[in-house]
Write a structure and sequence with these properties.
The chain is α/β, with parallel strands linked by helices. It is built from ten helices and eleven strands. The chain starts with a strand and ends in a 16-residue tail after the last helix.
């Protein structure tokens, strides 16, 4: 069975390689595109060669985003925690770092999982500053991070910055505010519909034509929501999906997938789920539902 990895292209390569090393026939079909808010210059958007320059609004928007990122870097030493929602947040935040900037030793860097943690360490954040759910976590999300790593700290009067894409969930921010912290946000990137290559479009066509020969791996509810927009004629009742969180599993069911297996994060869980095969008709509930 072929496994379709739906992560953004920036993270899909590593995920596909890791799964292939475990014997999985994995391929990438990104259902989320990642786009920098701040381009090569921080003052205005630049027209592509032969193209039309963006209007004044685009330049002003980019200039405001660049200013927000500069101010965020200036604030780091006063922050008790900087929460990164994804590896993309790390990549685009550090791309805006002032020359010679170093991570303050007194500032914690929050991460929801190993991919984001790896990006933080690669960017130069000291390991002692990183807080992630850890290997014992059944789920990788902000609720687990709070429960296992942050809830026992004193947040009264603390400054917290959340680095994310445009929009996003506010659960951790609301929880930290309830514990006495002051929380601000900075957008480092935006999520958009991806532009597929001809090879990627062909992968979708094959998956639609042969649903029983494919499984889909979802690590984001937004990826599930984007699939009907990218393939409006697709029918997924005969298709199987693996989802890494109850919210994601629910989103995948809502777009019509006939079998949704709720699995723990990591390649091992994927391999185990695929080795179990498809559920028999009439089984009644998705495999892996005990993780809910």
């Amino acid at each position: 069975m072929r496994l379709i990895v739906t992560r953004p292209r920036e993270q899909a390569g590593a995920a596909v390689a890791a799964l292939r090393s475990r014997g999985v026939d994995a391929v990438s079909l990104p259902l989320i595109g990642i786009e920098a808010i701040v381009g090569p210059t921080s003052e205005a958007a630049v027209a592509p060669e032969g193209g039309v320059a963006p209007g004044p609004g685009a330049g002003h928007e980019e200039a405001r985003a660049a200013q927000s990122l500069r101010q965020a870097w200036q604030r780091l030493p006063s922050c008790r925690l900087v929460m990164f929602v994804s590896a993309n947040a790390v990549m685009h935040f550090f791309a805006a770092a002032p020359p010679g900037a170093a991570w303050p030793v007194g500032t914690l860097a929050g991460s929801t999982g190993p991919g984001t943690t790896a990006a933080l360490l690669q960017a130069g954040v000291p390991p002692a500053c990183v807080r992630e759910p850890g290997a014992e976590a059944v789920r990788l999300d902000t609720e687990t991070l709070w429960q296992l790593r942050l809830s026992r700290l004193d947040w009264r009067g603390a400054q917290v910055l959340v680095v994310r894409g445009e929009g996003g969930r506010d659960w951790l921010a609301d929880t930290l505010r309830g514990a006495g912290a002051a929380v601000d946000f900075v957008a480092a990137y935006r999520r958009v519909l991806p532009r597929w290559s001809a090879e990627e479009a062909a992968r979708l066509a094959v998956a639609e034509a042969h649903p029983l020969a494919h499984a889909w791996h979802f690590a984001s509810s937004e990826a599930a929501h984007n699939l009907p927009r990218l393939a409006p004629g697709g029918g997924w009742r005969a298709s199987r999906a693996l989802a890494t969180h109850p919210r994601i599993a629910q989103a995948v069911r809502e777009i019509g997938f006939g079998q949704v297996d709720l699995i723990a994060p990591g390649e091992t869980s994927v391999v185990e789920a695929l080795s179990r095969g498809r559920a028999r008709p009439g089984d009644g509930k998705p495999q892996g539902s005990t993780l809910a």
